[in-house]
Amino acid sequence: MKAEDGSFNFATADGTKIFYRRWADVSGQCKGAVQIAHGAAEHSGRYERFARFLNDNGYAVYANDHRGHGRTRVRSGELGDAGPDAWNRIVGDARELTDRVRGENPRRPITLFGHSMGSFLAQDYMARYGKSVDAVLLCATHGVFDPPAQVIAAFDQAARADPLSPSRAFSDRWATFNQQFTPGKPGFDWLSRDPAEVQKYINDPLCGFAFSNELARDFVVGLRDLFLPERESRIPRDMPVFIIAGDNDPVGANTTTILPLLQRYRDYGLTRLDYKFYPGARHELLNESNRDAVQRDILGWLDSIV
Question: How far is CA 276 from the centre of its chain?
Fold first, then answer.
């Protein structure tokens, strides 16, 4: 019996209800499943178009809302409040969703697709639970983060003093992303060259919110630890990994922080590593002006590893 499309919840060990979506109206024989980990300050519903494209080409798609995002609310119920130990719990939530995807798609490959913050979570996931998925696609990622101890200490102090207030330091960092496109003007032009897609993001009440001080602290600590050799070296050597990014994406410093990641993966012995950079493209490749070409490339890679 084919799974139906819809929205669902599952309860975690700490009692949190994780909201997720399933797009399972697959054309023809199901080739596999794609599990999406979305980016910061957005939600799973923004991947509807991509999910339908994959459905039309033989793949079931699942995506949850991270804690403090979309329809997964904790503690205060405010966007940006992800509760304690957020990074580790969000990675754990992804593993729990994988178990559900596997149960509904036995003997079919599962690919974890992570965009932006979701790509960082996917990097961590590969090191912790790499054998539970069959492939990983990192979209709009980066691979260098080594903050001074005093920076981490400042985030930690803010989290302890006022955990639920919006993180000024995190918001200030986001504000810098727009400077290469509209100097001196805040905004979200860094997301895409397509102004209609940028406006959709701005108009979405579930997008663009500030992280709490606590979530910001957990996020930067998670990133700091993500690139430790003892963490990265656990990634299965035979894991198919595809890295895609716009070469004008400030999150990856216009690819300059992705290149070291690629080199480290080679040095660790990953044997099925591919990548593609898109000229002129910005951060949200699935919402970019060349999104059709991006989707075709993703499909081609998925089909090649099935």
Answer: 17
What are the structural domains of the chain?
Answer: 6-305 (3.40.50.1820)
Q: What is the pLDDT along the chain (306 residues), one digit of tens a residue?
A: 456 689 999 999 999 999 999 999 998 899 999 999 999 999 999 999 999 999 999 999 999 999 999 999 999 999 999 999 999 999 999 999 999 999 999 999 999 999 999 999 999 999 999 999 999 999 999 999 988 999 999 999 999 999 999 999 988 888 899 999 998 888 999 999 999 999 999 999 999 999 999 999 999 999 999 999 999 999 999 999 999 999 999 999 999 999 999 999 999 999 999 999 999 999 999 999 999 999 999 999 999 997
Q: How far apart are CA 171 and CA 235, in angstroms?
A: 32
Full DSSP string of 114-145: EETHHHHHHHHHHHHHGGGSSEEEEES-----
- For residue 231, the one-letter residue type is R
**DSSP tag of 272:** S
Q: Is 32 helix (H, G, I), strand (E, B) or coil?
A: strand
Contacts of 87 (CB under 8 A, 6+ apart): 121, 124, 218, 219, 221, 222
For residue 151, which of 68, 227, 223, 102 has the smallest C-alpha distance?
Answer: 223
C-alpha R_g of the chain: 18
> What is the model's pTM?
0.97
